[in-house]
């Protein structure tokens, strides 16, 4: 898809409003060894580019947003030159397009080639394929009872049968495999069931409570008991506006999405806070590694060492009681049970 990159001041108003709302924060801190110019390369992100200039790169709306030359930071392309300037004593970033222009003209480039806010390749599947739902949604959702010819395992191109009442009357449905049950480790509260989408399906008929479906595409095999839910209508979010997490909201990392024992930069994690706590995509948390319990060699007994700062993460998807976050920078390994706090 082609997008004409002109008249970007409208989009700039959004970033200006974000910057205005953040003026109450501490002044922007430039890195001591920051460059005066930076040439954008393929694979860059807005977070990464801002990290060349700022100690706190999540505050990029303030350094980009009020500059009409970068009215929409999402529309920056490889080859563009970002340079540091000053406006009313505050650092700002200017833009020189990478292509040479002998006379004014419209610049036309594919929108999908624009530099994203964060590395989407690390979270695309979690944005589009994962859900966390409450118990009533799971219990009410139809389920797969069998494949055609009593197959136990089905895949793309096969027909399967479900039983129950569709939550939304739509031909396009998805089949989900229950993956994880999240329980708050402190309060014991049930936070939700995590579901992983294994297939997209098209409903061909409904007879009483029996649903006939053809599998259009599949990520893994479809089995009996898997749940049928409406296809999510939301597009993959690629533009994020980072901001500190809500004041006073603290929590814990309760899961690691890639099935590893510890996480590092660009790994996705699960948090025990969500929309209920006003947490939304773009909110930034500091991660503190839980201090170890050690024995006092003199006085004896066990003592708890203080937590140490380990990482910065940004929320990229939130549900009712949990959220998904991407670790943007890590100075230590991150594990389940580590604390999350406001980054400032």
**Low-confidence sequence ranges:** 1-23, 100-111
Rounded to the nearest angstrom, the distance between the terminal CA atoms is 40 Å
Count of separate DSSP helical elements: 5
> What is the helix content?
10-25%
Number of strands: 21
Describe this protein's structure.
The protein is mainly beta and 344 residues long. The chain has three domains: 2-117, no CATH class; 128-230, no CATH class; 243-341, Thrombin, subunit H (Beta Barrel), CATH 2.40.10. 11% of the residues lie in helices and 37% in strands. It is built from five helices and 21 strands. The protein has helices at residues 9-21, 46-53, 60-64, 124-129, 135-140, and strands at residues 2-4, 37-39, 81-87, 90-96, 108-110, 130-133, 143-147, 159-163, 172-183, 190-207, 210-218, 227-230, 243-244, 251-256, 268-271, 283-289, 293-295, 302-304, 308-318, 323-330, 339-341. Strands 6, 7, 8, 9, 10, 11 and 12 form a seven-stranded antiparallel sheet that branches. A six-stranded antiparallel β-barrel has the order 14-15-20-19-16-21. Strand 10 and strand 11 (210-218) form a beta hairpin. The longest helix has 13 residues, at 9-21. The chain is globular and about 70 Å long. The protein starts with a strand and ends with a strand.
